[in-house]
Amino acid sequence: MTDHRELIGDSAAIAEVRDNVELVGPTRVSVLLIGETGTGKEIVARELHTLSGRDPFLAVNCAAVPESLLESELFGHAKGSFTGAVEDRTGLIEAADGGTLFLDEIGDMAPSLQTKLLRVLEEGSFRRVAANRERAVQVRVIAATNRALQHADVRRKLRFRDDLYFRLAITHLVLPPLRSRPEDVPTLAVHYCGGAGLSEEALRVLAAYPWPGNVRELKSVVEMAAIYSRGGEIRAEHLPERVRREVPLALLENLEEAKPGRGLLPLREAVADFERKYIEAVLEAEGGNKTRAAEVLDIDRRTLYRKLKTDLWGGET
């Protein structure tokens, strides 16, 4: 079995992705990768390409290139086809002949270009812009999108052709967001920390954060924290404030669902219990620094000290 070094994690979700990559990679079928930004779609595309044993691998982000330029970028153009076209140009589809073309953010491709791409997939031929001659090509297309193109209503809204979708999605892989596989966060964090080491406190903070930017955001956060740690162990205080501030909110999601007859507390005690957990989480996220914790809680230090000394809390923390 291939060592997918970049598809990191022990969760069932990422294991399924690895299994599918292993199965589909050696084939020549088109693949559509669906997933949120930062879930690793290009990493998966490169893994699929590597397993195919084909060359080259070329990539373009369809959302980053204006429609008027994307046509020439993909299909090439003939000399004199427009102002500035002083010579013939080979497009990416032709340059990727025999290999793989990765089309990122395919959901943003204009309908007119979708029609031309469909012809490449179905007939293996295309024309450069303003050219008369047909050119044959054998290229594997791997496309990716952060739009839910598997749903017909989304395709209609985006004006994405059904026939192109079904031709691309001979195999489609859905990449799970990081928040759905939190057990992989410590493994990924250790992988990206560059040998700096991570304290248990920092790992707990990382595990509690929802990661809207997915693996890409985690990689950025850990690499920056390693810089702030100056080569030492990464502690919670080295993590960005936005990550540390999310920790108390995670308590709400982890509290056991209250049910009648299951040890329900009077409202006063329930509020005090939550307040205790909230303050403890903020203190932990701030590395035990009471001054910074008070700032996050928007209370003065005296109020924080008083709360830490109440009988309900069992003495000073």
* Uncertain runs: 256-263, 311-317
CATH fold name of the largest domain:
Rossmann fold
The number of strands is 7
- Kindly provide the name of the CATH class of the largest domain: Alpha Beta
Beta-strand proportion: 5-15%
Structural domain tally? 3
CATH architecture of the largest domain: 3-Layer(aba) Sandwich
Structural class: alpha/beta
Largest sheet: 5 strands, parallel
Mean pLDDT: 84
**H/E topology pattern:** HEHEHHEHEEEHHEHHHHHHH
> How helical, in percent, are the residues?
40-55%
Strand order of the largest sheet: 2-3-6-1-7
Number of helices: 14
Give the end-to-end Cα distance, rounded to a whole number of Å.
51 Å
Q: How would you describe the shape?
A: elongated
C-alpha Rg, in Å?
26 Å
Q: Would you summarize the structure shown here?
A:
The protein is of the alpha/beta class.
Plain-language structure description:
By secondary structure, the chain is an alpha/beta fold. It has three domains: 12-176, Rossmann fold, CATH 3.40.50; 181-246, Helicase, Ruva Protein, domain 3 (Orthogonal Bundle); 255-317, Homeodomain-like (Arc Repressor Mutant, subunit A). It has helices at 12-24, 41-52, 67-75, 92-95, 111-123, 152-158, 162-168, 185-192, 200-208, 214-228, 241-254, 267-285, 290-297, 301-309, and strands at residues 31-34, 57-61, 100-104, 125-126, 135-136, 140-145, 171-174. The strands form two sheets. A five-stranded parallel β-sheet has the order 2-3-6-1-7. Helix 8 packs across helix 10 (214-228). The longest helix is centred in the last third of the chain and has 19 residues, at 267-285. The chain is elongated, with a radius of gyration of 26 Å. It starts with 11 loop residues before the first helix and ends in an 8-residue tail after the last helix. Residues 256-263 and 311-317 have low confidence and may be disordered.
